[in-house]
């Protein structure tokens, strides 16, 4: 069970990281265009 928790924790961290990267990329694109 603990292994599963660690795995899902890592997965959620990766998802958050990808989400933040997309957010930063789109924000940079908006500021570059304006």
Automatic annotation (TrEMBL):
Name of the protein described by the UniProt record: Uncharacterized protein
Top-level taxon: Bacteria
Species whose genome carries this gene: Fusobacterium periodonticum D10
């Amino acid at each position: 069970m603990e292994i599963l928790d660690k795995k899902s924790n890592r997965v959620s961290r990766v998802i958050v990281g990808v989400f933040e990267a997309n957010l930063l990329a789109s924000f940079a694109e908006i500021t570059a265009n304006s």
